[in-house]
Amino acid sequence: MRRRRTGRLAGMRMIETPFGPAGVDLDRPDGVSRGTLALGHGAGGGVTAPDLVAVRDAAVAAGFTVARVTQPYRVAGRRAPAPATQLDTAWLAVLAEVGGGPLVVGGRSSGARVACRTATAAGAVAVLALAFPVHPPGKPEKSRLAELDTGLPTLVVNGDRDPFGLPPEAPGREVVVIPGAVHDLRKDLEAVAQAVTGWLARR
């Protein structure tokens, strides 16, 4: 297990943050980049999640540089997520060191929440939220919907069977629903990629 993890880290660029090193996997398009899309992972997952990889491929093909960011707690080998303030601070530290041109921030699940909370501070022009967890499963009263009110153009891609809920559309917020998909969005990765490609074309 340690050998695999070391190999994975060897493929990342490491960036120091106040809470330890974060990892960045950077993919660039052919030719001049139109901007940077920064993507964060879910609470217990990583940047190789199928939806993040599908979005990476679509964004690079659309001319964007894509930075997939691994939070310090995951670099350290922990699965339990760090507190929100630590996640946000580490994320902003990484964004200060990567990218160029207009910045779009995003991620899946917990990573989407981090991107939403920090979008203004990061100087982002738009937000991409994959599988945004509106509430914990079975607890709709504990809504996180306010985090989506970033004041920036926002695309949300969620499955209609996601136990974490489905946010409604709102001014400045476009919601694409993937039929039959749950929280991991594996049901139709092509639809996820197409939604993101069309949205990025308008940035």
From TrEMBL:
PANTHER family: TESTIS DEVELOPMENT PROTEIN PRTD (PTHR13136), TESTIS-EXPRESSED PROTEIN 30 (PTHR13136:SF11). This is Alpha/beta hydrolase. The keyword Hydrolase applies. It comes from the Bacteria. GO terms for molecular function: hydrolase activity. Keywords: Hydrolase. Gene3D superfamilies: alpha/beta hydrolase. It holds the Pfam family Abhydrolase_11. It comes from Virgisporangium aliadipatigenens. Residues 35-169 form the KANL3/Tex30 alpha/beta hydrolase-like domain. Signal peptide: none annotated.
